[in-house]
Design goal:
heterodimer, A: 295 residues, alpha/beta, Rossmann fold, 2 domains, four-stranded antiparallel sheet, globular, B: 262 residues, mainly alpha
């Protein structure tokens, strides 16, 4: 069976030396693939190269079996694309954008598009210049989804969306997945990727450093713990799973991965005056993910 | 048609502003023209000018074969240059500004080729340009008629057509600059530079080789307005030279646009 998205040694290097190198990917039809990485890691470049908007300087890629550089029009016919920073036309309304997009795809029926617009709360009849960042994002999402594409390439799709619109959007993506659509989306928000994706690719400095299931990522269960003690604090250095321990006066900061039961036993014996447990940054996830793994 | 309508819509505001400027310019000159509204007055005026200045004004031929109406000297001859600035400005922003603002991500995410996108957008500009010429020539004729003169409709239409060809070539050259330029500012510089070249050329030709009408084909698309107005000769040379130049320059722009990153 042909993979919905395939890339072999795909490279796009700009004159300034930045870009992406050696991207190898195989994403099955009906899969949601989260593309995770910090800002500037190469997520947008990868997506633009997959769509043929940026010309690959090496390797090759295909979408639904069609080469993205040789058969770019067919690829774009099958694909819905959401740019990272959607630059729409200020003087046009959402409806006018939709009319252009569907007309150029030869689609007359706008029923699906209007249903999505209603779910997302898109303001269709206001000019783009009058819309907030979040509402522009909704218009751009609608344009990516309106023609019922086989493959969705979404660059930071939830950026700028309010929580309600985010929920509605994630629901729509789950429905698309159930219909067998393939979704490739980039994000730098870990929980969002974990909640939605079947598999996750991690990109760093233009290189795809890992591709794994969400389960594998979840197994690391990394958390950042901040404790404040009045008086003597217990020694956390020996607690299983604790790493990166730092003590600043009364404050203690560390990360814990895997099973948290040993930590809670220590905390039960000597409760702290204050405690904060937070999601780690991406960098911390990367570090936790690679510690203990063969290179 | 969708892309073409979109391209036209994007030209509308600039088109309106520039058309108003041109029509106001014609009106302003027209209001100052009655003093030389007759052939005799024109001959007298031209005769009183120093020869070199007369050449710059394009008056040599007029003195020999005066026309009923003076406005063309100040306006008709310079309209292609004025509308050329509009075209150079608009054409240079046609691609470069969109690329700089990453607006093409929306259009090029759709199944349309770059060639089609460029040609359609340029067609929108060319339509705006043609409409500007129609309004301009119409306004010129109306102002002349209001002055009690008998404007030569066919002659001025030919002048307008030739001027349109000249600005078409200017636009195609600026479009190529827009497709190849590093960024929007650079494209703007090129576009305005291309539009300014005919000004310099015109001035140099008038001083260096007065009366050599064929030299004006490049900036204007015609030998000289009096030639067209008096003979009604269809400007075949301008049609061939400037038409071919426009096609070649547009193809060059397509080639550059297809090769570059957006």
């Amino acid at each position: 069976m042909t993979a919905a998205i395939e890339a072999h040694s795909l490279a796009k290097v700009y004159r300034n030396g930045r870009g992406v190198l050696g991207i190898d990917l195989e994403i099955a039809a009906g899969e949601i693939f989260g593309f995770l990485g910090p800002n500037g890691a190469g997520k947008t470049t990868t997506i633009r190269t997959l769509l043929g908007l940026a010309r690959a300087t090496g390797g090759r890629a295909s979408i639904a079996g069609r080469d993205v550089s040789q058969d770019s029009l067919a690829v774009r016919r099958l694909t819905g694309y959401l740019p990272g920073d959607p630059a729409l036309y200020d003087g046009m309304t959402g409806q006018q954008h939709l009319d252009v997009a569907l007309s150029l795809r030869g689609i007359r029926d706008q029923g699906r598009a209007h249903a999505i617009a209603e779910r997302l709360g898109v303001e269709m009849n206001r000019k783009v210049r009058q819309l907030s960042r979040g509402n522009r994002q909704k218009v751009a999402i609608l344009l990516a989804l309106a023609h019922d594409p086989q493959v969705l390439l979404l660059d930071e799709p939830t950026s700028g969306l309010d929580p309600l619109a985010q929920d509605a959007f994630l629901d729509i993506l789950r429905e698309e997945k159930r219909k067998g659509r393939t979704i490739f989306f980039s994000s730098h928000v870990l929980p969002e990727v974990q909640a939605l994706s079947d598999r996750v690719g991690i990109i760093r400095d233009g290189r795809l450093v890992a591709v794994d299931t969400v389960e594998a990522l979840r197994r690391s269960r990394l958390k950042e713990v901040r404790l404040h003690y009045v008086g003597d604090a217990p020694d956390f250095a020996g607690v299983a799973g604790v790493r990166g321990l730092e003590v600043h006066g009364d404050g203690i900061v560390f990360h814990i991965a895997g099973d948290t039961a040993p930590l809670f036993r220590v905390l039960a014996e000597r409760p702290p005056a204050d405690i904060t447990i937070a999601e780690p940054s991406l960098e911390e996830v990367f570090r936790a993910y690679y510690e203990g793994r063969p290179s | 048609m969708t892309l073409y309508r979109m391209a036209l819509r994007q030209q509308l505001v600039s088109w309106l502003v520039w058309t108003i400027i041109v029509v106001l310019g014609i009106g302003t000159v027209a209001s100052a023209a009655p003093a030389v509204a007759s052939s005799k007055a024109l001959v007298a005026l031209m005769g009183s000018l120093p020869p070199s200045f007369r050449s710059v004004m394009g008056g040599a031929l007029m003195v020999r074969r005066p026309l009923d109406g003076y406005l063309y000297i100040k306006l008709v001859m310079y309209l292609p240059l004025l509308i050329g600035i509009f075209t150079g400005f608009q054409a240079s922003s046609l691609l470069a500004r969109e690329m700089e603002h990453r607006r093409f991500d929306f259009l090029l995410g759709l199944p349309i080729s770059r060639r089609r996108l460029l040609v359609t957008r340029f067609a929108g500009l060319v339509t705006a340009q043609a409409a500007m010429w129609l309004v301009t020539v119409g306004a010129l004729l109306a102002f002349l008629a209001q002055e009690g003169l008998h404007p030569d409709v066919a002659g001025y239409t030919l002048v307008g057509y030739s001027g349109f060809l000249a600005t078409l070539a200017t636009g195609a050259a600026a479009l190529w600059a827009s497709a190849a330029a590093r960024d929007y500012r650079s494209a703007m510089r090129w576009g305005l530079g291309i539009a300014a070249v005919p000004f310099a050329y015109d001035f140099a030709v008038r001083i260096a080789t007065p009366g050599q009408g064929w030299l004006y084909v490049v900036p204007y698309g015609y030998y000289d307005p009096p030639h067209l107005l008096l003979t009604h000769a269809f400007p075949w040379l301008a049609t061939l030279v400037l038409g071919a130049a426009s096609v070649l320059l547009t193809l060059g722009a397509v080639r550059s646009f297809e090769r570059r990153e957006v």
